Amino acid sequence: MDKIKIVIAGPRGRMGREAVQLVLNTGHFALQAVVDHKFEGKMLSDLDGFTGADVPIYTDLANCLEQTEADVLIDLTTPEAGMHHARTALSYGVRPVVGTTGFSKEDLKELEVTCREKEKGCIIAPNFALGAVLMMKFSQMAARYFSDVEIIELHHDQKLDAPSGTAVKTAEMMAEAREAKEQGHPDEKETLAGARGADYEGMRIHSVRLPGLIAHQQVMFGSDGQTLSIRHDSYNRASFMSGVKLAVETVMKADLFVYGLENIME
Ligand code: NAP
């Protein structure tokens, strides 16, 4: 079997470092190059912590893809860079696997249309942790029976977007299974703005940001005399890598846009 040729954007980041190790340690993956916004002309192995990663660093993805054979781009950067990279990769016929969160609905729509035009797969996964994907699926199932639900997502304090992509995706999946409903007392008033969290079709989403946390989410349902809590915790970033591997393998066979690993996990 030919190796899957991979470019990683954001290799020095917390997720990017794990992804570099995943690709280097997976027999049927080949790391071809990386894209950073600095260190043009250097090799990745010149940087601390990347012994053995003898691939060039580019600061521009288009330039990288002009000079590099690649099947898949893994992006783990920022929402602006991630969208630019996904667009550029597709324009070169390279399949994006994007873990970067914070894309708008318009961004997702644009990528879906481009994938159709190019007949190339693209996987956007707000959460690569397979346990988190199951948490979302179980929550969608529970939402059919419990109409009142709040999401509490908890992340490290360096996270840029709130609520998390996973929280939004969970709310979207539950919205498919439940009638929209204004929750809480109809006359409730916030005496401190934001106390009741963000509102998604009546479901409330609360974002906690603290050092020490990685990525955690609790979906809490309530009805007369009972509550049901579904919780997932990622304790380190290695927890995301089995999902990255699955996404890379799957995107090679896909000609479609996929948003969320739940759509490729049966
Ligand atoms: P991080 O540690 O801040 O890493 C981001 C990296 O991207 C940094 O090295 C940054 O460099 C680099 N970068 C910024 N702009 C760039 C550009 N234009 N081109 C290339 N590299 C660029 O963040 P992280 O924790 O790894 O998270 C990265 C993204 O993944 C975030 O959107 C986060 O929410 C998401 N995430 C997703 C999952 C999932 O399962 N899908 C899990 C965790 C995190 P500088 O530091 O020099 O700016």
Overview of this protein structure:
The chain has 266 residues and is α/β, with parallel strands linked by helices. It has 2 domains: 147 residues, NAD(P)-binding Rossmann-like Domain (Rossmann fold, 3-Layer(aba) Sandwich); 106 residues, Dihydrodipicolinate Reductase, domain 2 (2-Layer Sandwich), CATH 3.30.360.10. 32% of the residues lie in helices and 24% in strands. The chain has 7 helices and 12 strands. The strands form 2 sheets. The chain has a 7-stranded parallel beta sheet with strand order 3-2-1-4-5-6-12, with helices on both faces. The longest helix has 14 residues. The structure holds NADP nicotinamide-adenine-dinucleotide phosphate (NAP). The site of NADP nicotinamide-adenine-dinucleotide phosphate (NAP) has 26 residues, from helix 1.
The rough form would be described as: elongated
Q: What are the distinct ligands in this entry? A: NADP nicotinamide-adenine-dinucleotide phosphate
Low-confidence regions:
none
Average pLDDT works out at: 96
> What is the architecture of the largest domain at the second tier of CATH?
3-Layer(aba) Sandwich
User: What's the alpha carbon Rg, rounded to whole Å?
Assistant: 20 Å
Number of domains: 2
Largest sheet: 7 strands, parallel
Helix percent reads 25-40%
Order of helices and strands: EHEEHEHEHEHEHEEEEHE
- Give me the CATH fold name of the largest domain: Rossmann fold
- Overall number of strands: 12
User: What share of residues are in beta strands?
Assistant: 15-25%
Tell me the strand order in the biggest sheet. 3-2-1-4-5-6-12
CATH superfamily of the largest domain: NAD(P)-binding Rossmann-like Domain
Ends: how far apart? 25 Å
- For the record, the CATH class of the largest domain is Alpha Beta
InterPro entries: DapB_C (IPR022663), DapB_N (IPR000846), DapB_N_CS (IPR022664), DHDPR_bac (IPR023940), NAD(P)-bd_dom_sf (IPR036291)
Domain Dihydrodipicolinate reductase N-terminal: 4-128
Pfam families: DapB_C, DapB_N
Family: Belongs to the DapB family.
